[in-house]
Amino acid sequence: MDHLKETRLDGETAFDGKFLKVERDRIRLPDGAITHREFIRHPGAVVILPLLPDGRILLERQFRYPNDRVFVEFPAGKIDPGEDHLACAKRELEEETGYTAKDWQFVCTIHNAIAYSDEHLELFLARDLTAGQAKLDEGEFLETFTVTLSEMLDMVRRGEITDVKTIIGTFWLEKILSGSWTPAQAG
Asked: What is the pTM (predicted TM-score) of this model?
């Protein structure tokens, strides 16, 4: 695979924000040509696929400013520096929804914007949920609701769910609930 590798020569931070950084690197292509790559550095995030005891799936509606609309999503959140991924998933589920889970399984890692970001998302299945009080961050506004897997698949099919992490998580849930895929035990 070395014949495909691009090599960083040097670079700079083009933008350094509170949450994201934009890097601009000068690179050598596999054929020796020199060019630039601009990309976003992202700390990574977790995504929780919360399955209620009755088989319904817990989702959120949240306004996303860059696209100026409300999206339907799985609960998710940024991994803090040095934070264990499972600990982050547990924290985010409780903060955003009030729910805690007794059973956690690691599902997969996805890279959702490989052409312009190093962001990775760690997906976890959460079962045996217990309701509690949400602890939203200051400035965070969302609402939760539940659907069946069939309803969720229809929402994807109709274009009501367009968020990539939620679509991928939905298809994983379909495989897990059918028994054809089994995620690993977490923690």
From this structure: 0.95
169, amino acid identity = G
Contact 93/101 with Cβ under 8 angstroms?
yes
Domain 45-181 has CATH 3.90.79.10: yes
* Interval 47-76: pLDDT, tens: 999 999 999 999 999 999 999 999 999 999
Q: Which residues are catalytic?
A: 138
Q: Report the SS3 class of residue 86.
A: helix
Q: Tokens at residue 102, please? A: 């007794």
CA triple 162-136-161, angle to 5 deg: 10
Contact 72, 58 (CB under 8 A): no
The CB-side HSE value for 74 (13 A sphere, CA atoms) comes to 30
